Amino acid sequence: PVLQADLRLDTFTLLPAPWDAYPKEAPAGKKYRDDYRLERLTGVLRPMKGLKITGGDFYAQFGNGIALSLRKVDELGLETVLRGGRIDGKWGLFSFTILGGVTNVNNIDQKDQYFAEDPLDRLVGVRTGVKTPGGRLKLGLHGVWLRPATEEISSENTWITGGNLDAVLVPGKLMMGFEGDFGWFDGADRHHEYTRTDEHTGYAFYLNLRAKMGPVSLLVEGKIYDTFSFLGSKRYDTDLVGIAYNQPPTAERMDQEVDNTSTVLGGRLKLDWRILPTLSVYGNFGGGDYVSLSDIIRYSGTGQVAYHKSQYLHAYGGLDMRWSQNRSSFAISGGYRSEREPKARADLDLGWKQNKSLIHGEAKLNLFLHKDWNLHATFLHEHHTKLDLGDELGYEWGTHILGFDWAGVLDVSGGFEYDTDPITADWYGFGMVKWYIRSNLIWAVFAGTQRGGLKCVGGVCKIVPPFAGVRTELVFRY
After folding, report:
1. Chain centroid to CA 26: how far?
2. Does position 168 have pLDDT exceeding 90, yes or no?
3. Residue 385: Cβ-neighbour burial (10 angstroms; 0-12, 13-18, 19+)
4. Exposure of 476 in the CB half-sphere (CA atoms within 13 A)
5. How many CB atoms lie within 10 A of CB 144?
6. Are 318 and 332 in contact (CB under 8 A)?
7. Are 127 and 90 in contact (CB under 8 A)?
8. How many CB atoms lie within 10 A of CB 328?
9. CA distances from 240 to 134, 154, 309, 453 (A)
10. Which of 141, 199, 456, 468 fits as disulfide partner to 461, beta carbons 3.0 to 4.6 Å?
């Protein structure tokens, strides 16, 4: 199509409720509010082959997301877009992107129901790319500038420049990806644990190697991030950090809690072995140190010690099997993670102490029953330990779901969760129904109680409140 347009209207209304129902007053720094607005309006024009002009609200990402990543994270109810203009061009071996505007977020938090104004931080970005004939080598260069609308905790100005290289070293057998970025931050001490200056620079390097040797696949990832982050205005007045406009690769599990994505040295090694066409196993080992490499170099030989926030090791593995012409599948995995911190920040010779550990096990089953009917089940159990006033505290988390799916028509499931942490200990039960009324019309209903707590996706973490009641959603696509 030459012209395409998308429109989204958001409405939110608080209904009268008994005094003991959902709290009518939000915590300090947050608020509940009725809201009705034109939330997303996007127009895309393709005036000629290879050229696309976008106006309105749009997502954006450069490279691996280290320099810029404005996207949607459904699991956490987060969504950030840029409201402005964008031009994308692609002719032969060359491509480019120019974008600019102000940042726009969901004004009603889907998980907490709190209201937040759009940050309206000004952002400009440029990206160019070139590839060799055949596409075996791709080089990209990019630059981003940000000026937050408020400067309470973020830099007055942030400049980021960098590039990424993707190379097919041996076709079908060995591939490499690399990205390096440098940032200049002024006007705020955003990384006080690692640097004491208001104006400073930061850098980030990320490398991945993927090799395939017959039935064996190997992934190697490495990261060096040093006082490098991309923060804008605060979402709520009580927030300690601003909204992140980037999402660097963590080199860890997608659902893992990550202490820091701006200053860390780490990596991982993952090995996959396809034993049979329908059976594969894998093993993963990763580790890292939340410390500034620049500080290690600076303090070397001076008798001073660089600030080590913590160190981690994580090993896990599993298997995946399929049958019934890949219509049925079963996957199981498990592993152990340990985190430790120095007993004394100024003297590492005194040793380290474990502050957290995690033993986790997961299983997923999708069983083909008959024609369009399937049974699906998910089981997750985690054993956590943490330091509580100097003592080690152990507790359990779990989520177990069982359901039936009538393909393209109906999905019915139920489950229960538990949390034995003395502070939040409780049991939860719920049921969910999703009805595909038409191909473009879906009605979903959730009823029961759901566990809250910390939830993480790709290094982005958020405290999700527990839920009790009935929630319904009607989605119409056109």
Report:
1. 26
2. yes
3. middle
4. 5
5. 24
6. yes
7. no
8. 17
9. 48, 10, 18, 18
10. 456
Looking at residue 112, the DSSP 8-state letter turns out to be T
The 10s digit of each residue's pLDDT in 359-390 is 999 999 999 998 889 999 999 999 999 887 77
Q: Tell me how far apart the alpha carbons of residues 288 and 439 are, in angstroms, rounded to a whole number.
A: 46
Of 165, 161, 123, which is closest to residue 142 (Cα–Cα)? Answer: 161
Nearest-angstrom CA–CA distance, 62 and 96: 11
Beta strand 157-170 with 453-457 is unpaired
What amino acid is encoded at 69 in this protein?
Answer: S
pLDDT at 24 > cutoff 70: no
CA-nearest of 414, 354, 409 to 386 is: 354
Distance CA(113)–CA(101), nearest Å, equals 27
Cα separation, 45 vs 354, in Å, equals: 56
How far, in Å, CA of 251 to CA of 229, rounded? Answer: 17
Distance CA(256)–CA(183), nearest Å, equals 26
The 10 Å Cβ neighbour count of residue 235 is 22
In sequence order, the β-bridge partners of residue 204 are 181, 225
What three-state secondary structure class fits 82?
A: strand
The answer to whether 234 and 215 have CB atoms below 8 angstroms apart is no
Distance CA 469, CA 449 (A): 7
Report the alpha-carbon distance of residue 4 to residue 378 in Å, rounded. Answer: 39
For 219, residues 6+ apart whose C-beta sits below 8 A from its C-beta are 208, 209, 210, 268, 269, 270, 271, 272
The pTM of this model reads 0.89
Instruction: Return the closest-CA partner of residue 76 out of 459, 412, 477.
Output: 459
Three-class DSSP category at 267: strand
pLDDT tens, position by position, 228-257 = 988 899 888 888 888 999 999 998 888 888
DSSP result, 44-95 = EEEEETTEEEEEEEE-EEETTSSSEEE-EEGGGTEEEEEEEEEEEEEETTEE
Torsion 60-65-70-75 (CA) sign: positive
Residue 137's alpha-carbon distances to 168, 172, 449, in angstroms, are 6, 14, 51
